[in-house]
Amino acid sequence: SENTYLCQIYNLTLLCTEDYIVEPQSVQFLVQHGFDFNKQYSQGIPYHKGNDKGNENQRQSVRTFFLELIRAKKPLILHNGLIDLVFLYQCFYAHLPDNLGTFTADLSEMFPAGIYDTKYASEFETRFVASYLEYAYKKCKRENCKLKDCSAQHLTVEFCNYPANMSHYIDYRHCSLEEESHNVGEGNKVPVCEKFSAYGWCPKGMKCPQSHNIDLIIDEDDKLWEEKRKKRKHKWKRRKNTEEPAKAFEEESSGKEMDLAQNGEEGPPRKQSCYEPAAATELAEIIPNTEGTTLENSTDMEPETEVACAAEKEKETHGPPSQGGTHRAGFDAFMTGYVMAYVWMLKKGKNTDAGTGPWLPDCHNKLYLSGKSVPLQIVKSLFSKSSKAHSQKMKLAWASG
């Protein structure tokens, strides 16, 4: 039925056949969240970067699978997905183009149904106070539960009942509405870590003495929003009875606009000005200058050990592990899909013609850029041409489809 989705998640454990560099912090994070490196090196599906080698379309490989995703002509959904797209293109498609314009032109043809970034949607469509993946997911889930409780239109997710002989291949993750540590006594409450609250990542990691509990963070944000709303309402009532109603109205309007901007309802979320996100520094190192530099030369991507098209690979969701680690590629993909489905449901409810065009017109083919108020547009401009490798791949896709 409408707003009901059947969810199936697939994790592919891959192994790059070329030499690559690993960061100890990244390895430690993956181990803490249950990743099995023994399995990767003994059973990982091999892949290589860059262009095809020989007749690769004649054998089963990750490249063949990625080509099938392109043939499906379905929308691609990611969270903070620029680096994801660079990784997918470079590792399973072809050498990266020489410039950004060619790269976006290729992507627009690879995914004609559109590319959607739920981090961009969380900031500029729903105006969430924070937009890192776990925050956006839990915020959407919390609001969806409220809709369900009042019998309003809401999102429903269903899962498959897999047979017992597949149990060895199925990994279950608990994703309740609230964490177990949420409902603690008032006297035992640990103060929320401001940096984690703003970005979902803290340099101290598990050693941080403050709370990284997303539910408590959302509680604090909702409480602050409600307090600001009451203050605005009280000011409006008080000024309504003044002797200078026109002046009061003018002051109230400007004051309200300022409050809205601070509250994330206009412009980026208010937390985004608290700290310089680590992601902005990382992105600057990967693509130092989009003008006069090549993506290929300025990108030294490390191979991801687990790949899901909607997975988030940025550090913004790195929190303490929960029940063996919920931050896995598959679970991140699930959270990304849930956010998209919820935002789409809200938008569709206001637009009777929503089914005739793109899912979210205001977010269609727009990628979030760290530290920027404008997105990266995935379009083919009049001044950009598709890359030669891409043109060959597209011919291959439709010739063997």
Can you give a write-up of this model?
With 401 residues, the protein is mainly alpha-helical. It has a domain at 4-128 and 328-399: Nucleotidyltransferase, domain 5 (2-Layer Sandwich), CATH 3.30.420. It is 42% helix and 7% strand. It contains 14 helices and 9 strands. The strands form 4 sheets. Strands 3-2-7 form a 3-stranded mixed β-sheet, with helices on one face. Strands 1-6 form a two-stranded parallel sheet. It is globular. It starts with a strand and ends with a helix. Residues 251-268 and 273-325 have low confidence and may be disordered. Belongs to the CAF1 family. Residues 241-259 have a biased composition (Basic and acidic residues). InterPro entries: CAF1_poly(A)_ribonucleases, RNase_CAF1, RNaseH-like_sf, RNaseH_sf, Znf_CCCH, Znf_CCCH_sf.
